[in-house]
Design a protein that fits this description.
Layout lengths: L1 E4 L10 E4 L4 E4 L4 E10 L3 E8 L3 E8 L9 E6 L5 E3 L11
Antiparallel strand pairs: 1-2, 2-8, 3-7, 4-5, 4-7, 5-6
Length: 97
């Protein structure tokens, strides 16, 4: 699970937003800009360890046929329906878009 500050999703009422690696999409554009630091091709999956601007490390799980190289700059977009939101009190929040 990637744990990011609420500002990553532009929500002041959220302290922490969680997103699983398989619920992130990559592309030329995206909500977050990131650089691939380490890429592991594991057959059925490719795991990319990314450094997102102003957010830190984010892990992304991709289909094994997708090829990335360390140093590539990409956009990351989370599946909003799969965000896990936590309030300032540390408790899980009901998902409200």
């Amino acid at each position: 699970m990637n744990l990011l500050p609420g500002r990553a999703i532009a929500r002041d009422d959220v302290k922490t937003a969680g997103i699983r690696p398989e619920h992130l999409h990559i592309g030329a554009e995206g909500q977050w800009r990131a650089v691939a630091k380490v890429v592991e091709t594991l057959g059925a999956d490719t795991i990319a360890y990314m450094e997102a601007e102003d957010l830190g490390e984010i892990t992304v799980r991709l289909p094994g046929h997708m090829r990335l190289k360390a140093g590539e700059r990409l956009g990351l977009t989370p599946e909003s329906a799969n965000l896990h939101l936590f309030g300032h009190d540390g408790h899980r929040m009901e998902h409200v878009a």
